[in-house]
Amino acid sequence: MPKFKLPARSPRVDMTPMVDLFSLLLTFFMLTSTFRQADVTEVKIPNSISEKQAPDKNIMTIYIDTASRVYFNIDNGPDSSTHYRADIINEVGKYYNMKFSDKEVTDFKKGGAIGMPIKNLPKFLDSETSKDEKKILQSGMPIDSADNRPPDLWFWVNSSRKINSKCEVEIKGDAGADYKVVKKVLDILQVNKIDKFNLTTTVVKETVSSKDIKD
Q1: 121-151 as b/e: b if 16+ CB within 10 A
Q2: Using CB atoms within 10 A of its CB, is residue 117 exposed (0-12), middle (13-18) or buried (19+)?
């Protein structure tokens, strides 16, 4: 009896479930992700051989650019259930007898670094303020006392530590920043009993020559 040869069939993989799963995951990450805010000013950080990684949560960042302007930033906390920025701006407002609207608090919570007198903050958060006007308002945060009050930076640091006692301090200073400005920032930290902080640097590979090796 003759043998019948069945036609060879190539294996077929149904990709539909995988595509559906990918779409669901992509949608989930888009809805839950928080995009990193762009730096408020350009800072050319100095070089270092240290490879210690700074934390990406519970961090208070102080920027110092080459024009001696100071900016302040702090995150919302370790997860989506914490909203430290909303509590911090309300705490700062108490010192100046300022009441921020719900919209202003929400905008600040979603924003990034700021560098201006506290009295200019409502105008900065106003939705009708143009981007150019906002940029002009970001002229740097006062670090000198005025009207028998501590510097504005003091209020931000003090309020941030009061709301989130676990936050660490990171100083991101330009390599060409004025030393006097840096010292004023350090003095404000020490007044708030902050003696430990991180200095952001660029990692440079350390080279060792044979002359540096001793028997």
Answers
A1: beebbeeeeeeeeeeebbebbbbeeeeeebb
A2: middle
d(CA 80, CA 178): 37
71 forms beta bridges with: 63
Helices (H) and strands (E) in the chain, counts: 7, 6
Residue 172, H or E segment = strand 168-173
Place of tokens 């990193």: 36
Tokens of 42: 């350009």
Rg (CA), the chain: 26
Q: Which residues, including other chains, have CB under 8 Å from residue 160's CB and lie 6 or more apart?
A: 60, 74, 84, 88, 167
pLDDT in tens, 22-59: 777 777 767 665 555 555 565 555 555 556 666 678 88
Domain boundaries, given as residue ranges, for the chain: 47-203
Give me the sign of the Cα torsion angle 144, 148, 154, 155: negative
pLDDT in tens, 136-160: 999 999 999 888 889 999 999 999 9
